[in-house]
Write a structure and sequence with these properties.
Layout: E1 4-12, H1 23-37, E2 41-53, E3 56-70, H2 73-89, E4 96-102
Amino acid sequence: MSDLRRYEILVPLLFNDGRPVPEPLLAQTFAELRERFGAASWETQTVRGAWQYQGEVYLDNLTRFFVDVPDLPEHRTFFREFKQKLKARFDQLEIWITSHPLDVI
């Protein structure tokens, strides 16, 4: 067993008005994670999602970033703050960040 945690972040590939998110915004997000933690991963396949807000269903095309880090309170704090930055960067009502205990074999 290890004391690691994986944080996964889903960000949109399209803004709400249908314009594509510029690649530099995605690259900036990846670079910030890599610089902060020394390593990060970015899946380039499209993750398709759907969610409902105030009775309207929204369809999303998303990309996923993930980082494996020691399970420390300061890392959870970083991701809570980073979420707010990403919501502004990608002009979103919500950014989905999940975390999971990680057992590396």
